[in-house]
Amino acid sequence: MNILDLAVIAAYLIGMAAIAIWFAPRIHDTEEYFVGGRRIAGWVIGLSLVGTSISSITFLAYPADAYRTAWLRYLPNLALPVAVLIAARLFLPHFRRAGTITAYEFLERRYGPSVRVYAALAFIIAQVVRISMILYLLALLVQQVTGLPPLASIVLAGLFVGAYTWAGGIDAVIWTDVIQTVVLVVGGLAALWVVVEALPGGLGQVIEEAMAAGKLAFSELDANGALREVDWSLALDHKTGTMMLLIGLVAWLTEYSANQNTVQRYCAAESDAAARRAMYLCAAASLPIWAFYMFLGSALWVFYRHFPADLPQAILAGAERAEQIFPYFIVNELPAGVAGLVIAAALAAAMSSLDSSLNALSAVSVHDLYRRHLAPDRDEPHYLRMARRITAVCTLLMMAGALLLLYSETRTLQHLATILTSLLGGGLLGIYLTGFLSRLGDSRAVWVGIVLTLAFTGWTLLQKQGWLPQALTLPFDLYYTGLIGNLVMIAGIVMTAILLGTRKKEPSHA
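Above: the chain's sequence. Below: its structure in token form.
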């Protein structure tokens, strides 16, 4: 990189630090640290939700998928507007009442403290694994485009994000996410502009050639390496368009009911109406941004069709990881200044996820575990000090996880991350839906559902590894594990409630 690129990146980082410094003196209690005094405007929260949902995984994976295959990965996102409409009317009132800070307080009000503790611990473990992987991928990207060693990238990026989250709380997280969303869009547009300018037919050529090759369709590669459009039937033994939409609906309903990163935002809104506006804005902005990054991958395919190079060809042949395509383009094709802007966008994609998760981890640890069970009668300054300490500890855990990924067999750790996330996060939507829509069940019923769902998810994971005999093979595509897992959870809760009845719950402290 030259001095202009470094200046662009430095300006971005200075801006992020300045936001944290601005908000730090205003924080005097956990209400401010976690939900910003519940006075944040809906449009601000909406843009911050967009930034949070777009991580470095998305920044690399969407262009990679569109370059290597087509737009199948985008299809589940089309269920987001439906999920948001349901969440805004059904989920939101439960979370906005009684000064809620975390998503899991509802579970104690509905089922009792043990279910709340389970969900909180599941979130903490899954999020630490997730942010470790995001930081690791960010380090690889920074290494590829700057030459900075990955160890230094992990340490510097981790400490920077942890520091401004530690200092500025949710206010800094939300406002930096707003800026990061803007940088992400501008950086992507700059990269597409370079592609369009290089091709004699411009944007029209990209669209025409990509459409002719089926690169803009909802397709996947078949056994022969050719693109095949998915059908729209209802089936469990292979991927179909209809089932992909159902998978997306389940994933987004889970995001808006059981994910603290999201729930904490609309708890911070100045009113119920502002929270709804934030959710609608997030859906309206996210879909075109995700589509744009898919289109960027298609545009890169057209670009390297006319300007072939070894690595892009190797990716199409399956010899190299597709996630390398966008960093390769940044390094080799972008002019001075534009490269710095796109690298800043890559940093923004990672940081907007990392800072949100760090603050959410602190909120859940303090509010659901420490204040509720370990130290219930301390004053606010004590809880605020603990919140910042936990943010620091989670930052160190994130860096340690990224370093493990760096110095260990990546594939093994990624498999472990997938296993932990699938096991602990499976069926959470089923718990919330049963609680929102009925009065059936108590903590006993939920724990039966949890055990059944863990057994089912474990079965699918063992099958995926090829460790089960042929007689126990699954009659469905493993892509549908989450969808079926939630059905198992709901069935377990309802059947247990019918058999055992529903106990009158003791008053909770939630």
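The two ends are 52 Å apart (CA to CA).
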